[in-house]
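Re-running Glycerophosphoryl diester phosphodiesterase membrane domain-containing protein to confirm reproducibility after the cluster update. Everything else is unchanged from the original entry.
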Amino acid sequence: MENFKVIEFHRTRDFSNKMNVTFEFIRQNFKGLGKSLLFIAGPPVIATGLMVGTFMTDLQALTSSMARFGASDMMTKSFTTPTFWLQILLMIVLSVVSSVMALSTINNYIVLYDEKKTNKIEFSDVWERVRSTFWMYCGTVFFFFLLLMAVYLVIVIFVIVLAKISTALVVLAGFAIFFFFVYALFAVSLTFIIRTYENKGFFEAIGRSFMLVRGKWWSTFGLLFVLIIIGTVISYVVSIPYYALTVVNTLHNTSTESFEGPSSSMNILSVAFFSLSYLVQVLLGALPNLGIAFQYFNLVERKEAPGLMKHIDNLGTEGPASTHEEQY
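Result of re-run:
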């Protein structure tokens, strides 16, 4: 029998406890969350992987052919066809949809876990929440894009003005802009979980994210950095077959006197391995996204203490006091 203990979200946690609770949540919900991710985010992720894998295989064949025959106009013709740009557009759209579906699945699963206080989350409940928040997530991505473009235009104008004054000022501004973007990237990292858990508007959620992260930026950065590194290392291990097959294809093309493109079976294997590695990469995105969620609850508890207030309100109705120690 599974020794299940509900994870209390609203708690203050240090770095090691946030790491522990992230992996404990995955252990508790591996089946339910994994099933939800595979059936909800899996189809668009696999479609994206197949399309990108096919595109990369065709591009590799084109590059090898150009290197062999020296036909420089081949790439120009390929890049100016409507089919090429339609492929690019479809890859971007599918990539955004797959990322949105994965992130929405994770965050809505967290909300359902908090509401039901169990890891027996029904797939239908997760799917219903994902459907109801899909356009909110797409809108958030779109508004982030517009905001990024607006900031980019302001920066370009600012740099042009500085360039007329001094090159040294442009260099200093470049460093300042870089650090600003790094800070802002992690300062807004709580936006999606805030919109999901608190049902805030876009700009209100960004403002709240900045407020919560203020004074705890380094802990947010450190947690996400470590979880991203762990996920990246695992995803690279899974991607080894794809990279090995790519090297074999490249060596085959360069070792023959007459140009021979990869066989159809090799192309199918290459696309399949790429799709698998892309699927694993998206699934491993659960690590930093869960870390963001637990950092959100940690920061809310530190600054607003809803969990502590709930314990105080329940003092008269609870049984014998518990130690509230997390046993991981």
